[in-house]
Amino acid sequence: MKILSIEHALPARRITNDWVLEQVRIHNRETLSPSELELVEARLTRFLASAGTEVRYAVEKDERALDLCLNAGRAALATAGVGPNEIDFVLYVGVCRGWTEPAMANVVQAELGLGNATCFDIVDACASWLQALHVAHAYLRGGIYRRGLIVNCRMRLRALPPGLDARDGRRTRLSRRRLDGRRSRHGHRRERRHHRRRLLLHVQNFGEHYALCMFPLAMAPQFGTDAVDERHCTHAGSSHSPTSSWV
Predict the structure, then answer these.
(1) CA separation (Å) from 131 to 87, 88, 139?
(2) In order of start, what are the domains of the chain with their CATH numbers?
(3) SS3 at position 86
(4) In this structure, which of 4, 68, 161, 214 has its CB flanked by the most CB atoms within 10 Å?
């Protein structure tokens, strides 16, 4: 398997760590005591530092996540020198999605004019793109398809509610939902090895840690797991950060 191109697109709005901390102060100075606010700020500063990101990006009012996906997809096709009719499959691996069914890959296929491509989503949080590489490798190695497009769209959670309660378990929620949308990687082991220009992959899942990155839906309690907190079974407000595509 050979990766012909990797491209990305960024929204216009820049959000810095300093801005995040400032918003915490503004929204909580009336509800938290000075000592509680200082504790929240200290914890949040550590979370931001551990995420390894100083600047995040969000869409402006005149931008859409889909447009960013399509821009990245078109750029990837152009860089690879591949025409729309030469793509055999599209895999959408983004955390960000506009609906549950049908596959988000359908709108990418339609808007990019990939009329010959089959398409579906792979949903496994931050490991989705890696799982997609496995699927693509199997398709290509088996001779089923020749070329594919993998599209990713990342979400930035609105992780700053109007007010924080120092006693409501927010520490757990913030550690689970890092402010740049990244997830804790304890649930997966990934290995990449390059040998004679071939990309070899190995993935192992640790299912018992599934709650490390959970965005529950309204019906989540029906699945009978203690890891689901019914207070959080709502659709989180969101804007969108970088999108990327591989051909």
Answers:
(1) 19, 18, 13
(2) 6-159+172-208+238-246 (3.40.47.10)
(3) helix
(4) 68
Structural contact between residues 44 and 20, judged by C-beta atoms closer than 8 angstroms = yes
Asked whether the predicted pLDDT for residue 5 surpasses 60, the reply is: yes
Q: Residue 93 burial by CB count (10 A; 0-12/13-18/19+): exposed, middle or buried?
A: buried
Query: 197-221 burial by CB neighbour count: b if 16+ within 10 A, else e?
Result: eeeeeeeeeeeeeeebbbbbeeebe
**Beta carbons of 23 and 160 less than 8 angstroms apart:** yes
Establish how many alpha carbons lie within 13 A of residue 210's alpha carbon, considering only the half-sphere containing its beta carbon: 10
| pLDDT value, residue 170 | 45
Q: Could you tell me if 145 and 88 are in contact, meaning their C-beta atoms sit under 8 angstroms apart?
A: yes
Element (H, E) at 137: helix 128-141
More reliable by pLDDT, 160 or 6: 6
Question: What pLDDT digit, counting tens, does each position of 91-142 carry?
Answer: 999 888 888 889 999 999 999 999 999 999 999 888 898 999 999 999 999 9
